[in-house]
Amino acid sequence: MNRYIAALDRIVVLIIGIALVVAGAYIIAWDAGVRLIRTWVSRLDRPTLLGIPEQPWWHWVLTGTFVFCVVAGFGLLYLNLRLRRARAITLRHAQSGTEISVDLGPIADGVAAELAHLPGVRAAKGRATVDRGLPTLSVVVNADPGINVVDFTTRAEDIASTTRRNLDGSDVAVQVLLHLDRVDAAQ
After folding, report:
1. CA 185 from centroid of its chain's CA atoms
2. What is the pLDDT of residues 119-172, one digit of tens each?
3. 164: buried, middle or exposed (CB in 10 Å: 19+, 13-18, 0-12)?
4. Which of 53, 81, 109 is the last residue in one of the domains?
5. 91: how many CB neighbours lie within 10 A of its CB?
6. Of 38, 64, 92, 139, which residue is most buried, by most CB within 10 angstroms?
7. 113 with 98: CB under 8 angstroms?
8. What stretches pass through the bilayer (predicted)?
């Protein structure tokens, strides 16, 4: 998720939160018998207010609100759940000045293949994504529940640091997620 989507999410949550706080404060004030709230409610034109649902435009307003909320909700879900693919990065050799473009997808697959050969690992899958604006090699490892986690972590950190060293001069993160199988599934 990038920072613009995170900011949009926070703005939506802030608006909904403020609306809920105001509604809750109004209900508490009404229940507590606050004179100002009771005065405001007594000034409302009740026959007009109760007649709104019978107006011909009311159904269109409800339908439009429903459609807007569904489209906005699915739009936010799409923006939050989509994986942003990492673009190719450019590496520059310091001595010769030559530049090379490197696709991160095969590198993520290579890191996954290296991790798949470690003892106790059942499967590893890698992909190159963008996480918070940073190109990331994300590798998901499924392992036996009896794996030596300390040994695996040490070896995974070595592989990640070697990968980062080989991508010298670029801001690329390496992320290894370890998923342990359930104990009853392993037997």
Report:
1. 29
2. 989 999 999 888 777 888 899 999 998 899 999 999 999 998 888 888 876 788
3. middle
4. 81
5. 15
6. 139
7. no
8. 12-37, 57-79
